[in-house]
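Reviewer 2 asked us to include a model.

Predict the structure of this chain.
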Amino acid sequence: MANDYLLYQKFTDTESAEAFVAVLNKNGIECHLQDNNHAYVKVYGYSSIDIAVGVNITDRELKEIISNPYEWGHLDYQLAKHLLNERGWEISEAAIKAIKNEKISELSQNEKASRVKIIAGYILALLFPVIAILIGVTIQYNRKILPTGEKFYIHTAADRKHGRLIILISITWICLLFIYFFFENRY
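Predicted model (structure tokens):
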């Protein structure tokens, strides 16, 4: 009979495991606690999805998962969709597609680079050009990957121009310093 149970969750202490077992039992889920120097909860006849169904999740929480599909795992998203359908909240594929398109649109917005970061980049281009190159590169080349796999630059085109200029000033300054120190020691 013990082999018919599915290992559901591991705990580091017995008290937490016993509290979790109490919640499962309260929701009518048959389970037992197995303690071999670690606390394990094993559940009989339930997959992990069935266990989640047994625990109270409000419709509002499920709708939050549906409205933020890329912030939750695939399993959580599918489970939320399934539970809402079971509870009478029919969500059409068109609505889901619209939600996903809206999220993609939100995620693909360019961000403005911090004015402090840009100003620090220009100042550091003269004082510590190697550090300024790193700042310029992060402004110019940082990209984000959308859940669709599409890549785009994080910062706006205007900020990326600042990043290029910071890199250019820093490299020019390093070259001038190198030339200065090279020829200063020669004469």
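Residues 2-107 form one domain. The chain is about 60% helix and 15% strand. We have added this to the supplementary material.
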